[in-house]
Every structure is written in structure tokens, then in C-alpha cells.
Amino acid sequence: IVRLPGLLTAGILHALSDTKHEEIFARPAAQAILQFVWGDLANSPYCALLFYRFVVLAVLLISVINPPVTEAPRKMCWSAVVSIATFQVYCKCWEIYGFVRVLGRPSLILRKTKTWRDIALDMLLLTMCWMKHKTFNISGVPNEFLAFICLHQWWVTLYTLRAFKMFGSRILPIIRSFNSIIPMLVISMFIFMGFYHAYLALNMNPEELDDVLLSVFRTLFAGDGDGINDLIAMKATGEAGNLINWVFLASSVCIFQILTLNLFIAVQTEAYDIAQDHAKAMFDRERMGVCVQVWLRPHWRGWRMPYHKSTALVFQAFACTGWAFICQVPGLHPLFPSFFLLTAMLLADLWWLQRPWHGAHSFREDLEPLVESTSGQSNGEKHILWFCMQDKGDQGSEDEAPESYVQGRLSTLRREGEVRHRKVKVRLRKLQGRVERVKQCVDRGLDRLESTLTEQLEAQEQVAEERITRLGEQVERALDRVARTEHLVMERLDLLAESLGVGNLAGKSQPCPPEAARGAASPSASSLEAQASEVLQVSTESKQ
Length: 544
Known about the structure:
Layout: H1 10-17, H2 28-65, H3 71-102, H4 106-110, H5 113-131, H6 143-160, H7 165-180, H8 182-203, H9 209-222, H10 225-232, H11 238-276, H12 279-295, H13 308-327, H14 335-352, E1 371-373, E2 383-385, H15 409-509, H16 514-543
Antiparallel strand pairs: 1-2
């Protein structure tokens, strides 16, 4: 709900149509205002205006291709053009009045060149009809005057199609691109006039200015061989003059036809692509401008009839039938059926432009499903505009393209780049996820390996400590054995020494033969020496 006072007024509509910030039409509120005003008010009268201009085109085509001979068809053609031209002047006059009195900005209407252009065209149509108000033969006007009117009418009719989706997104970028090529057009014209001036200097014949201009134009723009022959065959003074003609011809073709025209086409293409990127915003803004023009016209303020659009269309159809019968009356000037048709067109326009809140509370409340009155007033300044929009959560995925009528080459390339960028981002995210998973797996493996190595090292250290402890115990036991062995050896050596001492004493008391003494003492001494050496060897090994 938009709760702004004076939302549906000419000032708000004109502010939206005259804004330089075209991105505002991407807002739901601006789209709601545009859709409501166009669908409920401006669509039908604007379609009627387009139909009127097609009727004028048909009359002009008939007047040129197969001019009517009898009086009745002439009257009908003349009356139709007068009625439609007068109605169009009426609409433009109300637009000027609206800018001066309703909006209070008369300076803006002076900048509306399209409004003054349309008024001038309609006045030319009325002038053409006035020139033949006796014979009613439109084809009898001067050919140049009729040719200009026909050309301009086709252009104006084409421009009228700008408010429809099918044509507006194509026509408006073309018109905007024309503003960007004006500098390049000036450059091209200077280059063309430079070569034209050079060829005039080579020819030096004031009587052949038109012929030289035609030859230069045919050569540089059309590449016509006859124009090339004319430029080569210009007056020349000897062989040097012919050489100069060839030099100028080659330079003009290379500089203008090859370089300048291709650059002109490139600049035009680039300007159109840039304008095409803003086609939807330009279309919405232009349609809002059409809504302002329609809004400023007078409308029916009384009781609102049911199905007023269909009723106005049926009424106008019956009025056209009555107008055709009136034109058949012999001796009756076509001004009378023109006045009758103009009155029917004005009444139908008043009914089409009736505001939705006018008379709705007195007849049917369901005639205004989008606008609800809060105070019962009929000025539209205290109404609430209801609109529906899609929730952001239901807009779909990011790959879905936003609503757009036509996309230019630059926008297409940009969108393809964005799609590729999104795909690359998705791939990078997937690769990053894989890298993170691999990193986590590697970290877990390293942790497991580290814990395993730590456990193994601890186990090995424990085993080594146990082995060292056992070896220490074994060494201590061995040292104990060695100590005991040494003690035993020492005891035995002491005993041996004692025994040897006792033997010596006994020998002194009882002599015996030396051989027997050596035979008895040798075995015991040798055995004792062997045991002593063995004990010492075991002790040494044990210590080691």
C-alpha cells in the first residue's frame, strides 16, 4: 500500500516522466503507478489516437495511389482528415494548458519540441484541407507540399508506436543513439565538404556546381562508377592535371568511404548498444510521459457508466456509421459531418479518461479494484494505491534473468560475462570445498601419523628403558659375581700362599729327593695358575 497524499496527480506523473534517474522505474511503487495509469486510463485513448493516425495515412495513400473521382469519397477523405487533425490539435492545446495552469510550469512546454512539431503537422493537414475546401480533392495540392506531409505523417505514426512494448524497446534506443552520433555526423560533413570544395576548385565552372555535388555524392556515399568517371574526366591541364584527379579520387575514397563511413557505423553501433542497455527504463519513462499527456486532457466527471470503455467504443462505431451516411448527402458541405465526427471523438475521449474513483461509490464499488477512496472525495488526492509484487524469497535462483524486453549487444555480453563469472565462482567454491576436504583429510592423517609415531616412540623409549634397566641389573649382578670371584681368588691365593709356606717348612724338616718334590709340587702349582688365569679372564670379560 502506498500511503502518499496526491500520489495519483499530474505532478507526480510528470515528475516520474521528467526524471533523469531512470533506475527509479525498477521500484515496485513506480511500476504500480505506471501500470495502473496506463492500463486504466491512458491505454484506450492512446490506441484511439494511433488508429486516427493510421486513418490519415490511409487517406493520404488513397489520394496519391488512386485519387477518388466521385464527390462522396472525396468528402469522406476530406472530412476524416479535418476531424482527426482538429482532434489532435485539441489534445495538444489541452497539454499546453495543463503545463501552464495545472502544473504551473509554462517554461517546460517551450522545451517540448515534439508537442510543437505535432501541432505544426496538424496545422499543415488543416491547411491542406483548407486549400481544397471547394473541390475536396486532397491530391490537387502542390506535390512538394503533399510529399512533405506524407513523409512526416509516416514518421509521426511510427513514433506513436513507442508506447507499446513490441516497438518501444526498439524505437527509443534508435532515437537516443541519434543524439550520440551528431559529433561524428559533423566530422563526416566537414570531410565531405572538403573534398567537394577541392573538386570545385579542380573544375572551376560555376555552372556545374550541382553536377559536381552529385558526382561527389555518388562516388563517396554510393560508390557509383558513373560518379567516378565524372570526377576523373574533369578539366585537367596536361598529364599533371590527370594525375591530380587520380590522387584526389584515391584519397577521397580511402579517407571518406573507407575510414570515415566505417567509423560512423561503428559509433552508431556503439551508441545503439549503450542505449539498448537502458531500453526498458526508457520505455517506462516514455510511457509515463504519454500518461501525463493523456492525464492533462479533460475527462467525464459525472456518473460513471458501467463498462465505460466498451460503451465509448460502441458509441464511436455508431457515430462513424452515422458520419458515413451524412457524407453521402448531396449538396451538404463536409464541414457538418466533420463537426459530427469530431463531437463523437471528443465524447468518447471524455468517457475513456473518466477517473476510476469518479462515481464509484454511488454506483458500483467493484469498478475500482485498485484504487480505494478514504474520504469519498473525487480529486484522487486521498486515495490508497494497492499493488501486488513478488516476494524476494520466491524470485527463483540467481541464474534467472530479470524481466527485460530487449537486450543489446553490450548487455548480452555483460550478462554472458556475469553468467560465466557465476559459473567460475561455483567451480571455485567446489574446488575450495574439495581442497578443504583434502586438507582436512591430510590434517587428520598427519595427526594420526603423529600420534602413532608418538606412541611408537614412547613404546620404544619404554622398551629401551626396560632394556637399559635389565642390562644395568645384569651388569650389577656380573660385577657382584666378579667381586665374589675376585674374593674367592684372593682367598684361594691366600690359601695357596699359606699352603706353599707350610710345604716349605716341612721340606726343611724332612728332606726328600728333588725330583720327587718337583713332581709333587708341580701339579698343584700349575693347576692353581690355570685357575687363577681363568678367573682373571672371566673377571675381565664380566667387567667389559
